[in-house]
Design brief:
mainly beta; 4-stranded antiparallel β-sheet; Thrombin, subunit H; globular
């Protein structure tokens, strides 16, 4: 295996307070929503971020997602969870 493929990638995750949903963000700048029960990516819920994330968290009611970035900025997103994906 090529050593360049052995890099440690940082991935951050959070769990929805009421639904079986998990969010991951990572160095690839992708924010992904996962159905924990089906162990599947919710197809219509992938977002490319503009900066490198360092943390992610659902709001207490689960309606918003807060993402912190390496630059010190943060972004608040509407969660708009769609569990009807394949």
């Amino acid at each position: 295996m090529n050593k360049s493929n052995q890099k440690n990638k940082k991935i951050f995750m959070t769990i929805h307070p009421r639904e079986p949903i998990m969010i991951t963000v990572g160095e690839d700048k992708n924010l992904c929503l996962w159905d924990i029960e089906k162990n599947k990516l919710l197809n219509n819920n992938k977002k490319q971020l503009d900066d490198y994330p360092t943390c992610v968290k659902f709001s207490p009611d689960g309606d918003s997602i807060i993402v912190g970035f390496i630059s010190g900025n943060f972004q608040i997103l509407d969660s708009k969870i769609q569990k009807n994906a394949n």
